[in-house]
Each structure stands twice: as C-alpha cells, then as structure tokens.
Amino acid sequence: MSEGLREKHKRRTRRRIADVATGLFMERGFDRVTVAEVAEAAEVSVNTVYNYFPAKEDLVLPPDQASPRRLAEIVRERPPGRSAAQAVLDRLREEVERRDRTLGLTEGFGPFFAMMRGAPTLVARLEELGHHMNDELAAVLAEETGAAPEDPLPRVVAAQISGYHSLIFGEIGRRVTAGERPGTIAKAVTELLDAIEEMLGAPMLGYAVREGRPCSE
After folding, report:
1. Per-residue pLDDT tens digits for 169-211
2. Percent of the chain scored above 70 by pLDDT?
3. How many CA atoms lie within 13 A of 106 on its CB side?
4. Using alpha carbons only, how large is the chain's radius of gyration in Å?
C-alpha cells in the first residue's frame, strides 16, 4: 500500500523537527536548548513537537530506534540452529560489516556522541535503556527455555549477552571520540567480536539453541 499524503507529511514533519533539534543540540549542547527553541526553529508549535516526541530525550533517542526490545527481538528472530548468544554476535557482525547507523559507524558521529555523553539526562536514558534491554532479553530466554521462575540461568545468560553488547558500543564510542575513521573502528570491533566469541565457550554458545535444521551456508 502506497504512503498517503497525510503520512508523508507527518514523516517529513517528524524528520524536520529531529534534524533541527540535532543541529541545535550539536551547536549549543543538549541541556542549553529548550523544546520551545526547537519548535521555533522548526516552525511548528511546542505541542506539535511533543506530539511527535513526548520527551525531550526522544529527540535524540527516539524509542523506535533506541528500543529496549532490541536484544529480545534479535533472539526471537534467530534462525534454527542458532543460540541466543550466537544470534546477537551474528547481528553485531552484520551491523559492523555494513557500517550500520545503529552502531554509530558513520562519518560525523563523533561530535554527536560527544553531545550525548555531555548530557546527564541522555546518559541516564542510555543506562535505563540498557537495564530494560537486559530484562526483556531475560524474559524471552526464560519463556523459550521453559525455565522455572527461580531458575537463575536466563538472567545470567541475559547479563552476559547484554554485557558484550554494551562492550561493543562502548568500544565504538571510545574510538569515535578519539577521532578514528569508521573503517578503522569496524576492523577493531570485528577483532573484538572474535575475541568475545572465543572466550564465551560451549555453555553460553549452546544455550537456548532454536530447534530445527539450520539453513545451509
């Protein structure tokens, strides 16, 4: 079904507000810009901004992109024969290979990342996102393995997966801040993923393997 004019207008308005906000935040800092100033610069009302972005932090970390369901969804979508831990490793490798925006492997991400790290409310949002991501993943693992409520394994495995997922984002952030190019960062992160996979071992890589015959390579 083709996109209607109303939907196109809403999408363009949302994009314009986000772009204007990002420009102001990069220029002056997240905490020094008000939603009213974003609205004025984007030539919309304050209510319109809040209709698209219920919280100021959503202008930088929109829920549809910075989702607490990320890890849970990766695990739910894994093909037969792949474990939960392997599925997340596979997805991270794919995203690194294509220089995905999700990881920040794009030119010009350094100043944007610095802006985020300089705003306490955004740092708090990222930390909260990490906790929710871990909880959502643990719930999926418990459901898929049929674990009893008192079984600690789903939470242990979720914590391990969330840990190396955070490690990858932290490594990218560190290297971006140091001014490294996306290609250089991608190579280093790929080597880090290799090291993580080597150290995980059979118990982690064999936990919650999806039933069914794996697809042929």
Report:
1. 999 999 998 999 999 999 999 999 999 999 998 999 999 999 8
2. 96
3. 10
4. 20
Burial (Cβ within 10 Å: 0-12, 13-18, ≥19) of residue 76:
middle
Query: d(Cα 13, Cα 23) in Å, to the nearest integer?
Result: 15
Is the Cβ–Cβ distance between 192 and 168 less than 8 Å? yes
CA–CA distance, 85 with 166 (Å, rounded to integer): 14
For residue 39, the SS3 value is: helix
Q: How far apart are CA 193 and CA 215, in angstroms?
A: 22
> How many angstroms separate the CA atoms of 131 and 64, rounded?
17
Please state, in angstroms and rounded to a whole number, the distance separating the CA atoms of residues 118 and 78: 36
Q: Is the pLDDT of residue 2 over 70?
A: no
Query: Across the chain, which distance is largest between two alpha carbons, in Å?
Result: 56
